[in-house]
Every structure is written in C-alpha cells, then in structure tokens.
C-alpha cells in the first residue's frame, strides 16, 4: 500500500472537503473551493511525469489517493477523475514511447484542466461509437453534436471528446480530439440538475461545427472494438479504475458511519445497543464480505496495469469486471446501511441519503450492466464484440 509520505492531500484539506460536501449537494453547486485546494496541493498533477513538473504517480497510486479523497468527498473525487485519467493516459503512452500527447502533460503542468465529453443520448457504446458528426476539413475536423455530462464544466480548459466520421460509409472512423474551451461553435449549457453527484456540475456541451485543429486530434481509429488501440484501452483503464475506487470509498464511508451509529443505537426491546442484535450483525457481516471482495479486486487490476502485465484483449475483462464489481457491491453496502439506519437514515442530517443517491449513479457510469455483460460474454465465447445479434 502507498505510504503516508506519498499522500498528496493533508487531513486538514480532506476535512474541509468533507465539511463542504453536503452544501455542494444541497445547492447543486460546483465544488470550487475543493477544486482550488486540490489544484494548489498539486493533486491534479499526480499522473504527470516528474520531469514535466508532476508527481509521476502510476494508476495504482492515483487510485489509492482517489479512494482516500472520495471517502471524504466522493463527488469531488469523481469530477477530478476526468482530468486525472486524461493525464494518466498521456503519461502511460509517453512511458511506452508514444509522445503524441506530451503536449497535454505540459499543458496540465502549466495549469490546463482536461474534462471528458463522451456521453451522448442514443449511444450506449461510449468511445466506440458516436452520434456526434466529425467532418474532415482543411487543417482539422468540425464536430457537430450534443454532449451530455460534461464533467468539470465550470473550469475545464480542454474537452476530450469523440465523433464519427462517416464520409466513407464502408469504413467509418471515430475521431478523438481535445477541444479548447474558447472554440467557436461550442456552447456549454447549464443542464445539471440530477439525482446524485451534483457537485460535479456536469453540464451539457453543444457542438455546432466546432473546429478542432489537427494538433489536438489524438486518434482516428475504426469504429467499435476494432478501434481499441493503446490510447482507447488506456482511457477505459484509467477512467473505470477511478470510478471503481470512488464508489468503493462511498461504501467504506457508509459502513464506517453505520458501525459507529449501531454502537449507540438503542431499542426498547433490547437491554444493550442494536450492535448486539443477531440480524443487525448478519447485515454487518454482509457489508464486510462485500467490502473485502471489492478492495483486492480493484487494487489488483490497477496494480497489474501499472506493472505492465500483458493480458492482451483480456484487459477488457479485467477492467469491466473490476468496475462492475465495485459499483454493484458499493450500492449493496449503502443499501444495507440505509436499512440498518431505520427512519432516521433518510434524513439529510444522517448523511446516508446522499451516499445512497450518489452510489446509485455508479451503475449509470460506463460501462453499464447491459454492455458489461454483453462484452464479457462475447469475449468468453470467442464472439467478435462488434458482432450484432440476428433474430429469427
């Protein structure tokens, strides 16, 4: 495990993040004060190589720090995960001898913030397909479409996005790009009023012929799984590993709150606290089983990636199962915590209802349950991931 000396954030910063988290949620307000403290502490530069001004931390090390932050302020951790995974992808490519995104690392070291613009209505295959049109023009591409859930909307400098170039119907391409904030034809629309993770302020971005020059075009690859090159695979690894650790931390927080509460919770039917109730103990044991199965799973996946273990196409299985396991287990733990809290648990003062709402959103983050099961089954059965079902 990472040593205390490697921790980026002080306990004082974390406690302030914890104190502000309920207010951000209640007001549906961006976590600006948290963001400022994280930036000043160098948190946004964790994955940037040391020789470029960062901390040179691996995926496994970044995930441990994210897990630590998320225990105090999970919405804050989830939002900055978007920036961290772009810097992590760029750093991993550079370590592998591909310096095509070194500009991104240098820009991050100078204060640039990178966000993610992949979510689209009607597209259940983020990264691999797109409803956004990418038109090749002189010197770059023009993007037209509607991006939802644009993380870090108030502060991003570049939006990492993708679109589909269908100019050749027989060979459509996915174009991955980084769009500067001041790009003409790009408009941020304040549309974020949601069930949970409200502090992320993940507003929509409208693209109307927004031009991105070639210098900011990261990849042009085939659609579907055929386009999963080291760049795309690294996005899956860094993004989903980050998600996994954030949601695991939510579950750990809910568990700790529950244990502490049960030691003090009384009932007229019992002479001692509810901690001695057999069925309460049964539920606590179920929570422990979930937590103990999540942590080694997500830790192993992130460490193997950091160590360069070559699973080939099997990395899809490793990444998707870790994320799915973390999210499903987290929601089960928080659900049990709410059951054990009783009626008081649904009040905001208890602190559990926000954890419950936010934990539920884990299932919505890519990849969702349907896509996860489809991919895992096809991989196990030796079926091409891009193969479409035929009925009748």
Describe the protein.
This protein is an alpha+beta fold and 392 residues long. The protein has 3 domains: 4-113, Butyryl-Coa Dehydrogenase, subunit A, domain 1 (Orthogonal Bundle); 115-224, Butyryl-CoA Dehydrogenase, subunit A, domain 2 (Beta Barrel), CATH 2.40.110.10; 227-381, Up-down Bundle (Butyryl-CoA Dehydrogenase, subunit A, domain 3), CATH 1.20.140.10. It is 46% helix and 15% strand. Helix 3 packs parallel to helix 6, helix 3 runs antiparallel to helix 7 (278-306) and helix 8 (315-341) runs antiparallel to helix 9.
Q: Quick one: biggest sheet?
A: 4 strands, mixed
Helix content: 40-55%
- The top level CATH class name of the largest domain: Mainly Alpha
CATH homologous superfamily grouping of the largest domain? Butyryl-CoA Dehydrogenase, subunit A, domain 3
User: Structural class, from secondary structure content?
Assistant: alpha+beta
Give start-end ranges of low-pLDDT stretches.
Answer: none
CATH architecture of the largest domain: Up-down Bundle
């Amino acid at each position: 495990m990472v040593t205390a000396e490697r921790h980026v954030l002080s306990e004082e910063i974390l406690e302030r993040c914890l104190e502000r988290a309920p207010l951000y949620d209640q007001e549906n307000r961006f976590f600006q004060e948290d963001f400022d403290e994280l930036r000043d502490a160098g948190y946004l530069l964790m994955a940037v190589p040391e020789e470029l001004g960062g901390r040179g931390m691996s995926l496994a090390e970044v995930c441990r720090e994210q897990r630590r932050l998320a225990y105090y302020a999970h919405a804050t951790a989830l939002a900055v995960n978007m920036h961290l995974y772009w810097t992590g992808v760029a750093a991993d490519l550079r370590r592998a001898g591909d310096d095509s995104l070194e500009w991104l690392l240098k820009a991050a070291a100078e204060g640039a913030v990178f966000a993610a613009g992949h979510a689209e209505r009607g597209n259940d295959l983020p990264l691999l397909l797109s409803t956004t049109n990418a038109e090749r023009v002189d010197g770059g591409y023009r993007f037209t479409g509607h991006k939802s859930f644009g993380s870090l909307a108030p502060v991003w400098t570049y939006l990492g996005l993708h679109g589909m170039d269908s100019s050749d119907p027989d060979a459509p391409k996915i174009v991955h790009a980084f769009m500067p904030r001041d790009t003409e034809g790009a408009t941020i629309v304040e549309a974020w009023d949601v069930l949970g993770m409200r502090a992320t302020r993940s507003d929509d971005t409208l693209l109307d012929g927004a031009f991105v020059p070639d210098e900011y075009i990261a990849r042009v690859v085939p659609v579907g799984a055929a386009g999963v090159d080291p760049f795309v695979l690294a996005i899956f690894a860094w993004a989903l590993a980050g998600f996994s650790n954030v949601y695991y931390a939510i579950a750990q927080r809910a568990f700790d709150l529950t244990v502490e509460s049960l030691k003090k919770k009384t009932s007229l039917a019992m002479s001692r606290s509810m901690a001695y109730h057999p069925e309460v103990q049964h539920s606590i044991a179920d929570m422990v089983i979930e937590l103990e199965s999540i942590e080694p799973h997500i830790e192993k996946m992130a460490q193997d990636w950091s160590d360069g273990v070559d699973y080939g196409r099997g990395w899809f299985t490793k990444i998707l199962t870790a994320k799915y396991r973390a999210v499903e287990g987290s929601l089960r733990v928080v659900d049990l915590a709410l059951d054990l809290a009783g009626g008081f648990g649904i009040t905001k003062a208890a602190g559990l209802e926000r954890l419950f709402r936010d934990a539920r959103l884990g299932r919505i983050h890519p990849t969702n349950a349907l896509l996860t099961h489809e991919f895992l089954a096809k991989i196990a059965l030796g079926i091409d991931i891009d193969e479409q079902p035929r009925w009748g």
